[in-house]
Amino acid sequence: MKPTYLTRIPAAEAHIRATGERLTQPRVAMLATLMTADHAISHLDAVDALAKHHPMDRVTVYRVLEWLVTMGIAHRIAGDDRVWRFMLTAAKPNGKANAQHLQHAHFTCNDCGQTFCLDEVSPKLPVKVPAGFKTIDVDLKLRGQCAHCA
Ligand SMILES: [Zn+2]
Ligand SMILES: [Zn+2]
């Protein structure tokens, strides 16, 4: 069964508490929302999703999403439309969020346009680059049809 927003609240609270940062309602609500999403969601998707349970203004949503990214709890992916989409970063087996950005591939569906994390697929690092270049981030994206559209 797909987890619902309300069933994710305790886990979201525990996750934020574990960071040692302040536990606030917007942070909990946003994280619980990301925990229920099976694909990356945009800032506006988040505003819409939250409207049902915990309405927040756009600026707050934006700030909370940025905070989750800074904390390594979520990460963002640039879409073809240049809109950032946010996704929960898979926790390590010990339950701790990755301090380092977890490198993994993303899959964008040509039909529905949704982007998914492929946590099991990672680009081989370090990637060889010419002398003088320094890689900070690697963005690997696959395209095709997702399981819902294939
Ligand atoms: Zn699709
Ligand atoms: Zn991802």
Overview features:
three-stranded mixed β-sheet, alpha+beta, about 150 residues, 4 helices, three-stranded antiparallel β-sheet, Arc Repressor Mutant, subunit A, binds zinc ion
Can you tell me the residue ranges where pLDDT is under 50 for at least 5 consecutive residues?
A: 93-101
H/E topology pattern: HHEHHEEEEE
| Mean pLDDT reading | 87
How many strands, which pairing sense, and closed or not: the largest β-sheet? 3 strands, antiparallel
Separation, N- and C-terminal Cα atoms: 22 Å
- What share of residues are in beta strands? 15-25%
According to CATH, what is the class? Mainly Alpha
Question: Counting H and I runs of at least 4 residues, what is the number of helices?
Answer: 4
Shape: globular
- Class inferred from helices and paired strands: alpha+beta
Which strand order spans the largest sheet, edge to edge or round the barrel? 1-3-2
Count of discrete structural domains: 1
Count of beta strands: 6
**CATH topology name:** Arc Repressor Mutant, subunit A
Helix content: 25-40%
Q: What molecules are bound to this protein?
A: zinc ion
How would you characterize the overall build of this protein?
With 150 residues, this protein is an alpha+beta fold. The chain has a single domain (5-144), classed as Winged helix-like DNA-binding domain superfamily/Winged helix DNA-binding domain (Arc Repressor Mutant, subunit A). 34% of the residues lie in helices and 17% in strands. It has four helices and six strands, in the order ααβααβββββ. The protein has helices at residues 5-19, 25-36, 43-53, 58-70; strands at 41-42, 74-78, 84-88, 105-109, 115-118, 141-144. The strands form two sheets. It has a three-stranded antiparallel sheet with strand order 1-3-2. β4 (105-109) and β5 form a beta hairpin. α1 packs across α2 and α2 packs across α3. It starts with a helix and ends in a 6-residue tail after the last strand. Residues 93-101 have low confidence and may be disordered. The chain binds zinc ion (ZN) (2 copies).
